[in-house]
Specification:
Shape: elongated
Helix content: 40-55%
Structural class: alpha/beta
CATH architecture of the largest domain: Alpha-Beta Complex
Radius of gyration: 35 Å
Number of domains: 3
């Protein structure tokens, strides 16, 4: 059995290396193509996955020689930390970023307004809107309005007495005003969007100089942006975008996966599942499944709400997965510990290692090969445990009645003697007289005395 396990592990390792090499050759070396515009579509809630996607794609488009980058927005808002990561990536970009609220019917609300203000050029499609940029605490009260700012629906202003909420509002105002001043846009309205949750349509935004232009689509945006002056990394550039081809940079499967688990609804359910799983395990020790599932869900939920950075969450899941798989190997269960550990290890590996970072990437073939090897060894271990549990017992009355042996000393009829049975010496009683060396079979047991008959 040990030889077969070694051969299986070796074959899986060779397979993982082969997949890794093939994938590395397929992905090796990005092709540089000049004179094109990269397009990034940022849709849905803004969370850690969206921030990572924008940062990676901006860097990738720059490396591949994009002339400009169109950041197409359609978002209701999201987490403040993720928004600030996206803004930092835009400001650090070495290519002009054109913010574009599209298609028709899209919006750049809340965090999307800040991101649009951070772009070197801001545009909107018809029938779109932006604004309502007041920060709202998760699970807390809306801090608007502040001071004597007008409240929605014309109701009387409600002063805010909480110092923490006041600081959050003032910090948000300073942030969006600085972005407005950086790119020469309407800073007064930006402050209104934060204080009073003001909103604007595309035409209104153009009139108030909140955006630079209105375009029906990406091609129209590039045509109308051509010749405009923008400031990128401290240098003034003239956009030359008319007629350039557009190359889409769609999110990969990893971004889609992280986007699903960071969805606010999914994050809420994961947190609930994690808490309830740990509570059930505490009230019913040894159930295993609730505790394992709860720990995994809680770590993913904390990452989804950005209470844990992605590197810490991924590392914690990997450590948890390895620990659970070792626990399964040392104290085999019904498989709940091992399967949970395998899931935690794979999810943690995906979260921790970003394969899009040049020079710092773990190929998915390696992760898949290790996960497959662990799954195969776990399956083999569970099979061996199941087989051992199905075997007949080697002690007890049921097993003893099937045993036979030989007399070590002669025995008289109805007398007692000694016999070797199952490699052990037992005191035996026989109703028949038998010489030493005779074969006997066990028919009963009275404590440490066995009743035997001639075999």
């Amino acid at each position: 059995m040990t030889r077969w396990i070694g051969m299986l592990a070796g074959a899986l390792l060779v397979l993982a290396l082969a997949v890794s090499t093939a994938a590395g050759q397929a992905a090796g070396g990005a092709v540089r193509t000049n004179d094109f515009v990269a397009r990034i579509e940022l849709s849905g809630p803004i969370g850690p996955a969206a921030a990572e996607y924008v940062d990676d794609t901006l860097n990738r488009a720059t490396r591949e020689g994009a002339t400009a980058i169109v950041l197409q927005l359609d978002t209701p808002g999201g987490l403040s930390d993720s928004m600030r990561q996206i803004i930092a990536s835009i400001l650090a970009a070495k290519r002009p970023v054109l913010g574009f609220v599209a298609p028709e019917g899209a919006r750049a609300a809340s965090a999307g307004t800040y991101i649009l203000y951070a772009c070197q050029l801001a545009a909107m499609a018809p029938a779109t809107h932006l604004g309502a940029a007041t920060p709202v605490q998760l699970g807390g009260e809306n801090p608007l309005p502040l001071g004597n700012a007008p409240s929605p629906a014309g109701s009387a202003a409600k002063p805010v007495s909480d110092a923490e909420q006041t600081k959050v509002i003032n910090d948000a105002i300073a942030s969006i005003r600085s972005l407005a001043q950086l790119n020469g846009r309407n800073a007064e309205w930006a402050e209104q969007a934060v204080r009073g949750a003001a909103t604007l349509t595309a035409d209104e935004a153009l009139q108030k100089h909140v955006i630079d232009l209105i375009a029906p689509d990406t091609e129209g945006l590039l045509a109308r942006a051509d010749g405009r002056r923008v400031r990128v990394a401290g240098n003034e550039l003239i956009l030359k975008t008319a007629g350039l081809p557009v190359r889409d940079y769609a999110p990969n499967w990893r971004t889609h996966f992280l986007g699903i688990i960071t969805n606010p609804t999914i994050a809420y359910m994961l947190l609930l599942a994690g808490v309830y799983g740990l509570v059930l395990e505490a009230f019913h020790p040894g159930a295993l499944f609730p505790g394992v599932a709860g720990a995994i869900c809680l770590l993913i939920g904390l990452y989804a709400l950005q209470l844990l950075p992605v590197n810490y969450a991924g590392l914690a899941l990997m450590v948890l997965g390895i620990g659970l798989m070792l626990a399964e190997a040392l104290a085999p269960s019904v498989g709940a510990i091992g399967i949970g550990g395998l899931i935690a290890f794979v999810v943690g590996s995906i979260m921790l290692f970003n394969t899009g970072v040049p020079g710092y990437a773990v190929n998915l073939g390696v992760i898949g090969g290790i996960a497959f090897s662990a799954a195969a060894l776990l399956t083999l271990l569970l099979r061996l445990v199941t087989r051992s549990r199905r075997t007949r017992p080697f002690n007890g009355d049921a097993q003893m009645l099937l045993a036979s042996g030989e007399l070590l000393q002669p025995v008289d009829a109805g007398g007692e003697s000694w016999a070797r049975i199952g490699g052990e010496q037992w005191r035996v009683r026989c109703e028949s007289a038998l010489p030493a060396g005779a074969r006997v079979r066990v028919v009963g047991r009275d404590g440490l005395l066995l009743r035997v008959t001639p075999a």
